Structures are given as structure tokens and as C-alpha cells.
Amino acid sequence: MDRQKWILLKLLRGNSTKNIRFDDLRTSLKYLGFEERIRGSNHLFCRPDIGVFMNLQRNGGKAKPYQVRQARKVISKFDLGKGPSDA
Prior knowledge:
The protein is α+β, with helices and mostly antiparallel strands.
């Protein structure tokens, strides 16, 4: 299993909400077709085709737990966990 799929599986499993690295979450969202825009410490991710916008910030080297849960909810709701979009 390649690293990106492993990270995505770890994210979706939900066992380690507090232990997801910010860079891993960021890479996963980009892998799933989200566009990233950076404004200061805010990383804004959007997928206009499904109308979703997310704002992520670092918490040291980790992602903030509530933002991990938000990303997990969006990935599950729109069934994005299968891989990158073809859009």
C-alpha cells in the first residue's frame, strides 16, 4: 500500500484524531482534488464541484483535532476516500 493511501486510511479510521500530522492531512486533501490557498497561517482548501471549503491551521506539527474530524466528515459524506477525483 502506498503512503498516501495508508495516510488516508488512518484518517478515515478515526482512531488517531489527535495524532494526524498537518502535512499528512494537507497532502491527503490535495490528493483528493482539493485546491489549496495559503493566507498567513491559514490553509484554505476548496472543492467547488461539491461546494466544500475548509480552513486548516497548524497546531505545532499536528493538525487540530476538530479540523481532522471536519475533513473526515467531508471525505465520508461525499465518498472521496477511494482516491483522487477525475474532475
